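pinned: reference chain
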Amino acid sequence: MKNFIVGIGGTGAKCLEHLLHCCASGLGPEKLWMGMVDQDEANGNISRTKIQLTKYMNLRSSLRDEAKHDLSKDSSLFKTDITSNPDSVWLPLKGSDPTLEEVIFYNSLKLEVKGLMDCLYDPTERKQNLSEGFRGKPNIGAAAMLATTADEKDVFWSQIYKAIDSARGGEEVRVFIISSIFGGTGASGFANIARRIKTIQKEKNVTTNFHLGGALMLPYFTYDVPEEKKEELFAKPEEFLDQTKWALEYYSKLFEHDKIFDQVYVTGWDPLSKLKNFNMGGNLQNNPPLFSELYASLGALKFFASENKISDNQEIFHIGKNDSNEILWSDIPKVSNSLNSKENIAKLIRFAFSYNWMYAPALIGSWSKIKRYQNENWFKRLVYKNTYNNESKSCEVGHENNQEVVLAMKEYCEDILKWISDMQHSTVLGTDQKMNLILSSFFSEYKAKSTSNRVTIKEKLNASEKNQFKELVSDGKNLKLLNVMSNICYKKINKEQKGLGVFMDILFRSCEQ
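pinned: its structure tokens
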């Protein structure tokens, strides 16, 4: 099966960030191609996901190397082989400072056509610099999308268009699109890109084995706009609900008369999460991860799950949390009967904590520093034996190539801990809701108004703080660090595992009851 996912706009990119972490926990398909669509390439949300995607692909490549470090094909850790284009972001409009007038060659249009454009777009919209996105104007974005997605030779879209050919040859192909229904880029791209893909499918006369799914995000956050910015062109939160109403009416008619999607997952949030920072675009628009985005990413993974049998009828799914003001682990749905989202995500969080503060410090540095652990059971069994060089007669865990893997995993674990902590704080900030997934106050600090580092985690923890590990995940399991340290000494090693892949997989599997 070939799987493709496209995140449109800032919301789409943020949902892909959640999806990457879910795939790291083992919830994703075997293989997945990932891409993003946004005119604002420098957008902080886009940049953060691009960086996370690169980290995921590089670390997985290092730990799925049969010659050096191999987690083995049976390991759930970084299970999904995620690929992308050299540039994972597609810009609808090329050029340094594109405008709509340039895209539609406004000055060359016939007089009657130019009059039509004047009715559809006012001078401000036609001349607006679009290098930082469509600023909450889907009518502008729609024109740009329709003008540029038609090129089957485009490096970005050719991946999907070629896959449609393979569906005709009998291979199943699934494509999933995520965007917001409000704002600019996402609202303009969701339907137009989907319809373009369906048009290609019809032109290629592919009637079976191809399925299109989508996640549509209703309003789920808001923000305050400074007075001096209110006259500028951007996505205005007071317009979100009206935009959503009009868009839902459009989609209702579209879905009634034309089966564009096989499955659509719809989610929003009430009360709206309140963002503390306002930025129209660019690298300062770095919004926090929010819980409703996790729902969208899990919808995508459910769509890709082999157990998901897609019917001939168009299906629309929605989801909600429990009726109380608390967000609990029980509010997180399974991806499938065999993929328990709660179990896998909780295990990844415990793994990130254990590795970051318990085991990475022991593995970082030269052999002269590391060798103090050489007589400990876990080290002899999982590290020394599997990084020993028979030619040099030495353990090479301290060598540069091995240290790169050790440090990359530590950095990724820090990202996991910041992600879950940020989501827990930011989702309920300024509302009467509470989020009770983890306890993070003993290892991190949260600053809501920070644009780049809302969450900072402690470099070191004392013994008392480490003992709070049993309260880290609020799932009632009361798993202690001593349990993890005991598990790691007897969990079975897969004969296909090699190098540091042995230790990483065993630690991951040790972080469950």
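why pinned: DSSP finds 17 helices and 16 strands in the chain. The radius of gyration is 24 Å.
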